[in-house]
Amino acid sequence: MNEKIKALRKKAMALPLSPGVYIMHDKSGKIIYIGKAKALKNRVSQYFGSQNNHPEKVRRMVDNVDDFEYIITDSEFEALILECSLIKQHTPKYNILLKDDKGYSYIRISNDKWRRISYTLQKQEDGAVYIGPYKSSYYVKNAVEEAVKIFRLPTCNKKFPEDFRKGRPCLNFHIKQCMAPCTGRISFKEYDESVNQAIEFLKGGSSQSIKQLTEEMNIASEKLEFERAARIRDKIQAVKNMATKQKVVANKIKDQDVIALVSDGEKGCFQIFRFENGSLVDRESFIVNGVTGQEEEISEFIVSYYTMRSDLPKNVTLDREISDAEVIEKWLSEKRGNRVYITVPQRGEQAQLVQMCKNNAAEAVAQLKGRTSREYSVLEDLKNLLGLEKIPEYIESYDISNLAGSENVAGMVVFEKGKPLKSAYRKFEIKGFSGQDDYASMAEVITRRFDEYEKEKHTNDGFGRMPDLILLDGGKGQVAAVKQVFEEKNISVPLFGMVKDSKHRTRAITNEGREISISSNRRVFTFVSSVQDEVHRFAIGYHHQRRKKNTFKSSLTDIDYVGETRAKSLLKFFRTIENIKNADLQELEQAPKMNKNAAIAVYNYFHKTD
Which end of the chain has the smaller Cβ count within 10 Å, N or C? Predict the structure, then answer.
């Protein structure tokens, strides 16, 4: 610990155990972070303790702290109010700062004779008709896309009637999502009628649209316009299908925000689903650097997000517990004007909504990292289950294989971003002792692995790369043996064992203290099982290879004048031991790399009599 940190810690230890706000300054005196605390001494002193316990973002902030000041308040709630005010005033570098730059959205109806419907963020003086503004760009975008599909309006860039019959209709016509006016077979009256129906649908919603379309269908039937009535009937069914699909994201709680976070320790995504009248009306996504998923970060985001929101929901649903939920509830309630509830559902419809929100957050981060949301989600689940600081992107796994202590070997496999990285697999021959001792074998392998790390760490590749997580094929004994190596070498890597049941199937993950069940999370269970199966396959494959090699040595290389090179040549030429045994002296002598003395020795070895 350097002298500056020691001095700051000493100052922090002298703070009162009172609620308040602390303000961090850099060397220039600029405010770089503002936080609140239930007990100032406890909270602020944590920053200047062991830096190993802090995520990277906090370590960087602490490195830049030159001094701090504090303001005592009468309660944690007052501290929260003051924190919000000061953050808004000073916008510190290391606080989560969000900008409400979404603006408004509009439905645009072009002023062409053959009108087009689209959505836009800007209202322009171009003669078009604009419906809006709407706060939710998500709602407008989805509503327009649904209307265009239901009423089979074109989305291409063709102009009508100029582009009539200039090409075959596109795929949308064949999948019944466009009436294809480009074919010249659709009358302007029929097209314009569909545009009007789409506009009414967008203005009045599905129920009003169904009512109006039904009236039009009945009138067409009375006039014996059966083809037109059939087309309207199809549109009614499409509207009903769309309404049914929307119920998938409808819920019993009418007014609600769902908030979930997915982070890999470097990039984090806060995803918000906003529900009104039980239906999803908006979705927002915020990418934040250096977020690891700690409670303070969740609280900080909620405060920052609702500081810039004027319309607050009655219910806020989170994907994890936060310790200051009660204080934030009170703040939100005062801001809204009536009671706001913060909940963390464990099962049922609400838990499913949280998972859906979380999956979308995972998809956003996965796209940034160039992988699939499925791969990312399982690593996020594994991180949360094991209590890791960051997503384990680079995982090493080890297994020992032997037969009653003979041919004692180990295999190491690597999974990067959820996929096997076979170029990084490594094999180990146990050299430190003979006989069977899985604990000592595992300790030797890990020792050798991190000895190589010291030699190659400047490369950040192969053994020169520090893993994010190590999984051992074994239980508490293997973990304890490796833990001792970690302590001797001052290594800080998350370490767990993979425990199997009596049928040699993955059952749980363990550390020295307890077992962690993984059966309830199907994705984690499948992933860990695949890691354990892969490292076992690799280790036992190497073991079989060693046994085969030594069996080969014990037969041919025991013969005078026959070393390993000559033995390999014989096998390559004759293909099997049996063919070598049946060869006559002349055939043996003429084989590659053989001479007369070696041929006689081999022949006599297989034809000796008792």
Answer: C
H helix intervals, 347-430: 348-369, 373-386
* Phi, psi for residue 258 in degrees, rounded to 5: -110, 125
The DSSP result for 109-175, as a single string, is E--SSS--EEEES---SSS-EEEEEES-HHHHHHHHHHHHHHTT---SS--TTTTTTSS---HHHHT
Residue 48 tokens, joined? 């200047």
Question: pLDDT for 555-584, tens place per residue?
Answer: 677 788 888 788 888 888 887 778 888 889
Comparing 146-155, 308-317, 335-344, the range with the smallest average pLDDT is 146-155
Q: What is the CA radius of gyration of the chain?
A: 35
The answer to whether the beta carbons of residues 298 and 400 sit under 8 Å apart is no
Structure tokens at 593: 């790399």
Q: Order the strands of the 105-109 sheet from edge to edge.
A: 117-120, 105-109, 129-134
Q: What is the Cα–Cα distance from 129 to 140, expressed in whole angstroms? A: 15
| Interatomic CA distance for residues 79 and 35, integer angstroms | 9
pLDDT confidence of residue 466: 93
Q: In terms of C-beta distances under 8 Å and separation of at least 24 residues, what long-range contacts does 419-424 make, across chains too?
A: 419/375, 420/534, 424/462
Per-residue pLDDT of 25-44, as tens digits, reads: 999 999 999 999 999 999 99
Distance CA 174, CA 236 (A): 20
Beta-carbon contacts of 124 under 8 Å, excluding residues fewer than 6 positions away, are none
DSSP structure class, residue 262:
E
CA distance 604 to 233: 94
Q: Is 594 left (phi over 0), alpha (psi -120 to 50) or beta?
A: beta
SS3 274: strand
Contact 516, 509 (CB under 8 A): yes
SS3 415: strand
Compute φ and ψ for 343, nearest 5 degrees.
-130, 155
Q: Measuring CA to CA, how many Å separate 140 from each of 91, 114, 464?
A: 32, 22, 51
User: Parallel, antiparallel, or unpaired: how do β-strands 469-473 and 394-403 relate?
Assistant: parallel
For the segment 523-555, what is each residue's pLDDT rounded down to a tens digit? 889 899 999 999 999 988 887 777 666 555 556
Sequence letter at residue 379: L
Give the pair of three-digit tokens for residue 300: 């900080």
Cα atoms in the Cβ-side hemisphere of radius 13 Å centred on 292: 15
Q: How far is CA 601 from the centre of its chain?
A: 64
Is the distance from CB of 511 to CB of 495 less than 8 angstroms? yes
Q: Which of 358, 354, 411, 347 is nearest to 383 (CA)?
A: 358
Instruction: For the chain, list the domains and their CATH numbers.
Output: 3-90 (3.40.1440.10), 105-249 (no CATH), 256-370 (3.30.420.10), 386-530 (3.30.420.340), 557-607 (1.10.150.20)
Read off the DSSP letter of residue 48. T
φ, ψ (nearest 5 deg) of residue 88:
-65, -35
d(CA 248, CA 542): 51
Tens digits of residue pLDDT in 460-508: 888 999 999 999 998 888 999 999 999 999 999 999 999 887 777 788 8
Alpha carbon distance 89, 21 (integer Å): 14
